[in-house]
User: Which sequence fits this backbone?
């Protein structure tokens, strides 16, 4: 965490990709160590599904990590504002530059939203994994251990792909479909629309999926890894033009 703090200060005027990478690293580290349950109960027998979910999502973790995470997040946001202002001031079209910055911010935000979920599913250790296996089993899902691992893997791919803007279109399609299916298999469509309903309606999940689906259409935008990767000379030589047109922004 100290290295992340130093990096955030050092790169206060770094590139957009550097800002995105630092945001992803900060989110993973701060989220894991602020919610990681360091003293799991001796027995989880008799706990309801909602209790199982809360058990791995509320800590307690390492003291101070949550505050450090917020501090780093604020520094990264300052980086984004400084970079956006600098680019807009030097651009021929200030409006286009600001629109590109706004698209970058939304893409990174919806990507980082996967971090708390993948952290609990596949990065939180055997206790957290066991809890989610039991939780998925309580939902009536077959092969719950495989389902938890698969969910965590898709969330990891979605977080990295959207945050950095790499393979943005296929990753956005994957993430959007995954969220809709999780709403379906989790029974949220049957519960109702409003997310604040007991056990949660489908409002939040569908909104999140819709926001991600936008990037399946428009791509990662000007400030994405795809822009540099698929327009390079090596990509022109090695990757068919049809593939590059799909992947490039």
Assistant:
């Amino acid at each position: 965490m100290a290295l992340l703090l130093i990096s955030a200060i050092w790169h206060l005027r770094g590139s957009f990709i550097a800002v995105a990478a630092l945001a992803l690293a900060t989110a993973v580290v701060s989220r894991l160590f602020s919610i990681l349950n360091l003293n799991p109960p001796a027995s989880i027998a008799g706990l309801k599904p909602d209790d199982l979910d809360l058990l791995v999502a509320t800590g307690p973790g390492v003291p101070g990590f949550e505050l450090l995470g917020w501090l780093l997040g604020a520094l990264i946001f300052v980086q984004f504002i400084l970079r956006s202002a600098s680019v807009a001031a030097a651009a021929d079209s200030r409006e286009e530059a600001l629109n590109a910055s706004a698209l970058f911010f939304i893409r990174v935000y919806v990507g980082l939203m996967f971090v708390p979920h993948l952290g609990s599913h596949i990065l939180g250790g055997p206790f957290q994994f066991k809890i989610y296996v039991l939780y998925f089993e309580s939902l009536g899902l077959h092969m719950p251990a495989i389902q938890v691992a698969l969910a965590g893997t898709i969330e990891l791919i979605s977080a990295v792909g959207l945050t950095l803007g790499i393979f943005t279109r296929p990753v956005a399609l994957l993430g959007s479909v995954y969220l809709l299916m999780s709403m379906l298999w989790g029974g949220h469509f049957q519960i109702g629309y409003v997310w604040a309903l007991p056990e949660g309606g489908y409002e939040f999940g569908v909104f999140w999926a819709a926001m991600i689906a936008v990037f399946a259409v428009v791509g990662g935008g000007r400030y994405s890894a795809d822009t540099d990767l698929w327009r390079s000379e090596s990509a022109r030589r090695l990757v068919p033009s049809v593939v590059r047109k799909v992947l490039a922004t």
User: Anything to note?
Assistant: Residues 65-90 form the longest helix (26 residues). The two ends are 33 Å apart (CA to CA).
